[in-house]
């Protein structure tokens, strides 16, 4: 297993990291095209997605246990290139429940859970030490946090990459698949998001969760992304909610489409880390 030579801060406990590696309902087109059972096993630069992410997390000096969460989590180690996950003492497999929010709530309620914790996804293939450093430095002290990349950061480096942008006052932002559960108050946000997940076709549920003034302010771009997430955290009872802006363009390039995978493989080849 690759090791990172940077030393963690003195007396600072290691963080658990949760990798969301489950499947959405229906057939995943990337998994189907690759002939594998689930998206987390789709090969990128010759290795399954989950292999890239797990190795990046285990190599970081701030990370302790890595929890792989999926519908049949341990089956992800049945692949020849991921069999090492089963033998790695810092890897723990946890079967997920009905939806991401409920699965994280179930984990938080378990005896082995420890906060703060990092959450990422199995398709976050370009995750590395620099991205983790930037996020962890910005998330410390928050009850809940999410990493995002501003559009100008990505466009300067990879103008061909197409992402979904959330527009706020002062910029447009894309998610970076990194989240922070800083305290028990994060459970309040997860419970509210669980309600939205269950009734996502009912627009009034979203309005009731975030409030009409907050949605209007964000929709009209009267609020910056930082003010919007801070207000949302208070509204949801989640304490201090924070956006962590990342200066690394690769942080928001996840493997959602064939074009994404082609770009990721070019980046990995340029890094020489395949």
TrEMBL record:
Residues 35-175 form the MobA-like NTP transferase domain. The keyword Lipid biosynthesis does not apply. The keyword Repeat does not apply. GO terms for molecular function: nucleotidyltransferase activity. Keywords: Magnesium, Nucleotidyltransferase, Transferase. Gene3D superfamilies: Spore Coat Polysaccharide Biosynthesis Protein SpsA, Chain A. It holds the Pfam family NTP_transf_3. This is GTP:adenosylcobinamide-phosphate guanylyltransferase. It comes from Sphingobium jiangsuense.
């Amino acid at each position: 297993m690759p090791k990172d030579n940077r030393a963690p801060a003195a007396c600072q406990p290691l963080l658990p990291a949760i990798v969301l590696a489950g499947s959405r309902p229906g057939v995943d087109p990337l998994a189907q095209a690759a002939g594998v059972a689930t998206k987390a096993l789709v090969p990128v630069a010759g290795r399954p997605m989950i292999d890239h992410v797990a190795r990046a997390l285990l190599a970081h000096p701030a990370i302790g246990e890595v929890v792989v969460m999926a519908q049949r989590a341990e089956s992800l180690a049945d692949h020849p290139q991921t069999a090492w996950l089963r033998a790695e003492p810092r890897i723990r497999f946890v079967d997920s429940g009905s939806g991401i929010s409920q699965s994280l709530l179930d984990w938080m309620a378990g005896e082995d859970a420890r906060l703060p914790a990092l959450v990422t996804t199995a398709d976050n293939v370009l995750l590395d030490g620099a991205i983790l450093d930037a996020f962890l430095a910005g998330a410390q002290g928050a009850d809940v946090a999410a990493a995002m990349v501003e559009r100008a950061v990505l466009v300067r480096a990879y103008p061909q990459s197409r992402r979904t942008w959330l527009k706020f006052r002062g910029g447009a932002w894309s998610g970076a698949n990194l989240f922070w559960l800083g305290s028990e108050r994060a459970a309040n946000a997860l419970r509210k998001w669980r309600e939205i997940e269950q009734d996502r076709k009912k627009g009034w549920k979203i309005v009731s969760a975030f409030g009409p003034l907050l949605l209007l302010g964000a929709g009209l771009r009267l609020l910056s992304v930082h003010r919007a997430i801070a207000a949302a955290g208070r509204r949801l009872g989640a304490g201090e909610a924070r956006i962590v802006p990342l200066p690394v363009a690769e942080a928001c390039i996840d493997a959602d489409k064939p074009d994404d995978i082609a770009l990721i493989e070019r980046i990995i080849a340029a890094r020489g880390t395949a």
